[in-house]
Design a protein that fits this description.
153 residues; single chain; DNA polymerase, domain 1; Ubiquitin-like (UB roll); alpha+beta
């Protein structure tokens, strides 16, 4: 079936079954490979994108449920929060293997969009469900605090 999506500021037409997870449309049909497959059951966060500016796990979201919503992937994350998060990630050398990081970054952007100065507990609660097999959680938390400082400046 032909499905129209608003993704990364563009309207795109794709051919997919309505129950196909958004993740596979993003990766296989649109060839935007920054969004990763991790678990397929929304437990790890590797597939996190923004749906109307809010973090959403794309591995369990049927493409037919998107409707008129705006989808943003890591490739198009350019808000002030996104730029601050990306700068902090680089400055603090957060990434180890990197596989989970696009999902971590998209979640962190969502957090800072809603809460410009989160506490450690707020960061931990919001980022819960974003798994990092390399256990860079302390660096992720520090980078979110640093991104908050960058936004404040």
């Amino acid at each position: 079936m032909s499905i129209q999506l608003k993704i990364n500021g563009e309207t795109r037409q794709v051919e997919a079954d309505g129950d196909t997870p958004l993740l596979w449309v993003i990766r296989d049909e649109l060839e935007l490979t920054g969004t990763k497959f991790g678990c397929g059951v929304a437990s790890c966060g590797a597939c996190t994108v923004h749906l109307n500016g809010k973090p959403q796990r794309s591995c369990i979201l049927p493409v037919s449920a998107i409707g008129e919503s705006e989808v943003t992937t890591i490739e198009s994350a350019t808000t002030p929060q996104a730029k601050a998060v990306q700068a902090a990630w680089q400055e603090l050398d957060v990434v180890q293997c990197g596989y989970c990081q696009s999902g971590q970054i998209m979640s962190a952007i969502g957090l800072l969009s809603d809460n410009a100065k989160p506490t450690d507990n707020e960061i931990d609660a919001f980022m819960n469900g974003n798994a990092c097999r390399c256990a860079t959680y302390h660096r992720i938390r520090a980078a979110i605090h640093r991104a908050s400082e960058i936004l404040e400046a």
